[in-house]
Specification:
This protein has about 150 residues and is mainly α. It has one domain. It has 8 helices and no strands. The chain has helices at about 5-10, 20-35, 40, 50-55, 60-95, 100-110, 115-130, 140-150. Helix 2 packs antiparallel against helix 7.
């Protein structure tokens, strides 16, 4: 005869995670995209927020998992990578300005400097669209992220 588990052991049994409501999904996806604004204050902590959101909600919502992972990849590529590219462009312009050729590089360095700010605006647009329940995909990053999540 099998014994029934005691009520004490049932109290410590893990409960299955509840799925998120559509409103909660939109909110967490929006926060993942708007985390790019944290980069304005810290310079580099923006990707931490979508990574934490992904870890917390990946099993509860594919929508939140997709948008948080997409925001993480986007910020790593266009904010941090763009910032490094801006630094390199200005360093090259500065070194070459002693030879006069660097002065010709300054307009290109100025254009490259707009990459992180464009990423900031694009992240806010993504947050707004997610808060309205629309499916938002970053250019170049969205399809790759979806393929990564689907295992393709």
């Amino acid at each position: 005869m099998e014994s029934q588990p005691s009520s004490e052991s049932q109290a410590y049994a893990p409960r299955p995670l509840a799925l998120l409501s559509p409103s909660e999904e939109r909110t967490w996806a929006m926060l993942a995209h708007l985390s790019i604004l944290l980069n304005l204050v810290s310079g580099f902590l923006g990707p931490v927020v979508p990574f934490i959101i992904y870890l917390l909600y990946k099993d509860r919502s594919r929508y939140v998992a997709y948008h948080s992972l997409q925001s993480l990849f986007f910020q790593l590529i266009f904010w941090l990578g763009g910032g490094v590219l801006v630094g390199v462009a200005w360093a090259i312009s500065g070194v070459l300005s002693a030879i006069l050729i660097g002065l010709l590089c300054i307009p290109f360095a100025l254009l490259i400097s707009l990459i992180p700010f464009g990423a900031l605006i694009y992240g806010v647009v993504g947050g707004i669209q997610c808060s309205q329940g629309q499916d938002f995909r970053y250019w170049l990053v969205g399809d790759w992220t979806r393929g990564t999540l689907m295992g393709e």
